[in-house]
TrEMBL record:
This is ATP-binding cassette, subfamily B. The lineage of its organism: Bacteria, Bacillati, Bacillota, Clostridia, Lachnospirales. GO terms for molecular function: ABC-type oligopeptide transporter activity; ATP binding; ATP hydrolysis activity. It is a multi-pass membrane protein. It comes from Enterocloster lavalensis. Pfam families: ABC_membrane, ABC_tran. It comes from the Bacteria. GO terms for cellular component: plasma membrane. Residues 25-307 form the ABC transmembrane type-1 domain.
């Protein structure tokens, strides 16, 4: 991305800090003045000392010293403001950007998360923004100081000797052009570095989350090998970065030296020819030193600048990630939901894979009806259910809730009315209580306990070490599958949605847990429109209606008895599942 584009996106973040910024620049101007005054004082004293020593009294020297001391106090106060308030402003901007990035992440859909590594996202909103503090604070300040010092130095130097000054200043644009190439390379190298840190984070995250699988396969050495390869690659990228940084700094140093050579040679010749006085040449050299120190500071800052720009670039890329599921204009909140859901000619294909997953689905589920979805693996059952809370939007057709297109209602109200219980339960790191209360922020303790009782979770929760305050571990690792599932049911129960989607909610459980969870699910489903995906067909025999989804279409529909009589796909799935169960029972029996 172009620097100008990135700056355009970044500058609005100063809007809350205009006062601090102005004060910061004012302090920068003060410190610059204090620095520039010193050569003038020395020039004045040297001139008097060489030409009119009698005019130089102790009182004059002390007065000059006292004035300079006052200047240094002002300089100290200004520097403190810049170092403290300036940095706090930078950190505040970093914080604002991080909040925006996190809020933007909340609006992104499954499509983004399915295609982006969590490690990369983590880097973008944490470490990538670290350098923004320095950038936000120093960027305007450093450029302002450099500008003021260069202009003032030019004016003062030109007043001492125009020709010498022109010779020196001609070198500056030549130097700028030579350096810009390396500067660009440094920026690209920083971007590669950041990307690779993201990859490294993703690798660590993957390995840590899958640590059980790693240990079960005794693949620790494989993991170490993969990690070390990535880590070495990171070193290679860093080496490249340092090469360009060294080249950049050296080019500037070369010009830096060249300027001194010009001052010594040209200045010496001018002095011999009487074109410049010795005291002026001393002051001149001091100003050139000030100018060069400014240039040196810019070199140092160039690295910080590029780091900051890389962070801003990666932040901007995140902020540009498309929000593809959003409230349509004029979307209204759902009220008095009955729970009738209608699919009208709905077709769907995943954005990055244009194979039809659902084709021309037409379906109406009445309020309170219990519908089960079955069919071969990969037939599109989960996809169909994901369209109801708008995790994805249909490619064609529309879905209506109580006759209202779900695209015309607010996402928040839609999702509040659709409860989803999945096979993979995600519990947040925190207490049992917090995890249930997540279903309804602000819920009272009574409501949480009532939901847990209805979900059949109250007894086992009371039996835990700290009852409702028991820490569940990361992703609920300290609980059994059945316990986690009942907590997740209580969480949905608390929300009291009108429509419930049960996506293989009992598939991963053993018989005993399955039985307990099934009871909880029955309570959850009571009085609600329910769409159940099940692999174990015995669990859905009592459904009002069973839909068989195969080859992207609903190919059979009816209750258990009707479908068994049809002797179609459902009959085959049911009989083969029964045979498998019998074989398993015989094996266990023998
Ligand atoms: N995020 C995705 N991106 C691309 N294709 C996907 C995605 N998720 C699922 N699919 C594909 O869509 C098809 C339907 O998947 P879906 O999970 O809806 O099937 P399912 O009937 O629920 O399967 P199962 O019974 O095995 O859970 C499959 O071919 C799958 O590979």
């Amino acid at each position: 991305m172009k620097t100008s584009t990135l700056l355009k996106r970044f500058v609005p973040y100063y809007r809350n800090y205009v006062g601090i910024m102005i004060m910061d620049l004012f302090c920068a101007a003060l410190t610059t003045v204090c620095e520039l005054v010193l050569p003038l004082i020395l020039r004045y004293i040297t001139n008097l000392g060489m030409n009119d020593l009698s005019a130089l009294t102790v009182q004059t020297i002390v007065t000059i010293g006292a004035l300079y001391f006052v200047l240094r106090i002002i300089d100290g106060m200004a520097s403190f403001y810049m170092a403290y308030t300036g940095h706090v402003m930078g950190a505040s901007i970093e914080t604002d950007m991080r909040e925006d990035a996190f809020a933007h992440l909340q609006k992104l859909s499954d499509n983004y998360f399915n295609n982006t590594k969590v490690g990369q996202i983590m880097s973008r909103i944490t470490s990538d923004l670290f350098d923004v503090t320095e950038f936000a604070h120093h960027c305007p300040e450093e450029f302002f100081i450099a500008f003021v010092k260069t202009v003032v130095s030019f004016v003062i130097l030109a007043r001492i000797n125009v020709l010498l000054t022109v010779i020196i200043f001609v070198l500056i644009p030549v130097m700028a052009v030579s350096c810009s190439y390396f500067n660009l390379q440094v920026r690209k190298a920083f971007k590669r570095q950041r990307n690779h840190i993201g990859e490294l984070n993703a690798r660590i995250e993957d390995s840590l989350l899958g640590n059980k699988v790693v240990r079960a396969f005794a693949n620790e050495a494989v993991e170490i090998g993969k990690f070390n390869r990535d880590n070495q690659e990171f070193l290679k990228i860093k080496r490249q970065t340092y090469k360009y940084m060294a080249a950049f700094q050296n080019t500037i140093r070369m010009f830096d030296g060249l300027m001194y050579v010009v001052v010594i040679v040209a200045g010496g010749i001018f002095m011999i020819k009487g074109l410049i006085m010795p005291a002026d040449l001393v002051a001149y050299t001091l100003y050139v030193t000030t100018l060069l120190s400014t240039i040196r500071r810019i070199i140092e800052f160039a690295e910080q600048f590029q780091r900051g720009m890389t962070g801003i670039e990666r932040f901007t890329e995140l902020m540009d990630a498309n929000i593809d599921i959003f409230d349509e204009e004029g979307a209204v909140p759902l009220r008095d939901v009955e729970g009738e859901i209608t699919f009208k000619h709905v077709s769907f294909e995943y954005p990055d894979d244009h194979t039809p997953v659902l084709s021309d689905i037409n379906l109406t589920i009445k309020p309170g009806e219990k519908v089960a979805l079955v069919g071969p693996s990969g037939g599109g059952k989960t996809t169909l259910c994901n369209l109801i809370p708008r995790f994805y939007d249909p490619t064609e057709g529309e879905i209506l809730l109580d006759g209202q297109n779900i695209r015309n209602v607010t996402l928040e109200s839609l999702r509040s009315n659709v409860g989803v219980v999945q096979q993979d339960v995600y519990l947040f790191s925190g207490s049992v209580y917090e995890n249930i209360a997540y279903g309804k922020p602000g819920a009272t303790r009574e409501e949480v306990v009532r939901a847990a009782k209805m979900a059949g979770a109250h007894e086992f929760i009371e039996g835990l070490k700290d009852g409702y305050d028991t820490y569940v571990g990361e992703r609920g690792v300290k609980l059994s599958g059945g316990q986690k599932q009942r907590i997740s049911i209580a969480r949905v129960m608390l929300r009291a949605p009108k429509l419930v989607v049960l996506d293989e909610a009992t598939a991963a459980l053993d018989n005993e847990s399955e039985h307990l969870v099934a009871e909880s699910l029955d309570k959850l489903a009571a009085g609600r429109t329910t769409l159940t995906i099940a692999h174990r067909l015995t669990t859905i025999q009592g459904a009002d209606r069973i839909l068989v989804l195969s080859g992207s279409r609903i190919v059979e529909e009816g209750n258990h008895e009707t479908l068994m009589k049809q002797r179609g796909i459902y009959y085959q799935l049911y009989t083969s599942a029964n045979m498998a169960d019998q074989e398993a029972a015989e094996e266990t029996g023998s």
